[in-house]
From TrEMBL:
UniProt lineage: Eukaryota, Metazoa, Chordata, Craniata, Vertebrata
Start and end residues of each Aminotransferase class V domain: 84-180
UniProt GO MF annotations: glycine binding; glycine dehydrogenase (decarboxylating) activity; pyridoxal phosphate binding
Catalytic activity annotation: N(6)-[(R)-lipoyl]-L-lysyl-[glycine-cleavage complex H protein] + glycine + H(+) = N(6)-[(R)-S(8)-aminomethyldihydrolipoyl]-L-lysyl-[glycine-cleavage complex H protein] + CO2
Biological process, per Gene Ontology: glycine decarboxylation via glycine cleavage system
Pfam families: Aminotran_5, GcvP2_C
This protein's name: glycine dehydrogenase (aminomethyl-transferring)
EC number of this enzyme: 1.4.4.2
Cellular component GO terms, alphabetical: glycine cleavage complex; mitochondrion
Length: 413
């Protein structure tokens, strides 16, 4: 996530943007779509649903209501299968190859199998595995040639702003997460926003509203309303507008280039200490890493972090890996060691009772850049891991569980 909300907010308030209305200036150039949906939905998943609803309504208008299969790669953004099911589509999962790209042979097999019922494919580009699909145009062309539409999830738009446009390489619906790439705070500091850009043939089928007339929308063809607030959380939209205007085209391109550079720099520094799951065949790595894969860590430096901060983070991860090696090689006790006993609170360090096989100094300042005047002291020490082990919280299920078994059911009936 880009962490540039603070400086933009300062200018936002100084310049009195309080009565500014949101206009899609510059955003058509970002998405590559000739029509931009002028309803920035209140979250990314709602934008996904709106785009899929438009696709479904478009297919219905052509007498192709039987088209209901949505292909989703394993490398897609995690919300995609849920949105597809909400839109009444049946999910089929596409495998990835050893480099993290969409497996074209498996994709072609699924397209052939569901040719008559193919509605759409949802693609995250670059993917959630951090890979720029080398044959993205071929993927989009394959879907189009078999009667489907392409939905582009913009969760990782931070890696392509100004360098490429989804509409140019084949997207019919292009989704932008303003809370990821365009400066709106994320999560609890949000709310998030998920506007979508669509090609002209889908514009009449965008969601309608019972009170506010929607430009270019054919109310009789639309699948209906998906948001009570037609403009989403409109009060925060000028933040993204101000960010785009302040950065300009050159600034946006530079931010994208730095984000990609930062991610590759961190991946290169850490590759000798941790396994980088996917890099892509050319060695490029987008500003997101392996989120949906169990046992991995997602790192998003974006363009917001400078080299010194990234080096500190990498040094910390490398230090943790060394502590693991000390346990593996018997230099540290397997139960009482700096890794398992961390974090060390101020109360713990200053206690008169210190019975651990490593020094207080190492516990408090394990790396050269951690000093008394800069250290952020944790308020508690290690949580109760045993309690956590005995009260399990389920992880996200694998993508396969979203597959619709309708083919098997139909075959057996």
């Amino acid at each position: 996530m880009s962490l540039n909300i603070f400086p933009v907010s300062i200018h936002f308030h100084l310049c009195n943007f309080y009565t500014l209305q949101c206009h899609p200036v510059g955003r058509i150039g970002l998405s590559g779509g000739p029509v931009l949906a002028r309803r920035p939905y209140v979250c990314g998943a709602q934008g996904e649903y709106a785009g899929l609803a438009a696709i479904k309504a478009y297919l219905n208008s052509k007498g192709e209501s039987s088209r209901s299969v949505c292909l989703i790669p394993k490398s897609a953004h995690g919300t995609n299968p849920a949105s597809a099911q909400m839109a009444g589509m049946k999910v089929q999962v596409v495998e990835v190859d050893k480099d993290g790209n969409i497996d074209l042979s498996h994709l072609k097999a699924l397209v052939d199998k569901h040719k008559a019922s193919l509605a759409a494919m949802m693609i995250t580009y670059p993917s959630t595995f951090g890979v720029f699909e080398e044959r993205i145009r071929d993927v989009c062309d394959l879907i189009h040639s078999n009667g489907g539409q392409v939905y582009l999830d913009g969760a990782n738009m931070n890696a392509q702003v100004g360098l490429c446009r989804p509409g140019d390489y084949g997207s019919d619906v292009s989704h932008l997460n303003l809370h990821k790439t365009f400066c709106i705070p994320h999560g609890g500091g949000g709310p998030g926003m998920g506007p979508i850009g669509v090609k002209a043939h889908l514009a009449p089928f965008l969601p309608s509203h019972p009170v506010v007339p929607m430009q270019s929308v054919n109310t009789s063809s639309s699948l209906g309303t998906i948001s009570a607030a037609p403009w989403g959380s409109s009060a925060i939209l000028p933040i993204s507008w101000a960010y785009i205007k302040m950065m300009g085209s050159k600034g946006l391109v530079h931010a994208t280039e730095v984000a990609i550079l930062n991610a590759n720099y961190m991946a290169k520094r850490l590759e000798g200490h941790y396994k980088i799951l996917f890099k892509g065949r050319k060695g490029f790595h987008a500003p997101t890493m392996s989120w949906p894969v169990a046992g991995t860590l997602m790192i998003e430096p974006t363009e917001s972090e400078d080299k010194a901060e990234m080096d500190r983070f990498c040094d910390a991860l490398m230090g943790i890996r060394q502590e693991i090696a000390d346990i593996e090689e018997g230099r540290m006790d397997s139960r009482i060691n700096p890794l398992k006993m961390a974090p060390h609170s101020l109360a713990c360090i200053s206690s008169s009772n210190w019975d651990r096989p490593y020094s207080r100094e190492y516990a408090a300042f394990p790396l050269p850049f951690i000093r008394p005047e800069t250290k952020f002291w944790p308020t508690i020490s290690r949580i109760d891991d045993i309690y956590g082990d005995q009260h399990l919280v389920c992880t996200c299920p694998p993508m396969e569980v979203y597959e619709s078994p309708y083919e098997e059911k139909r075959a057996s009936s």
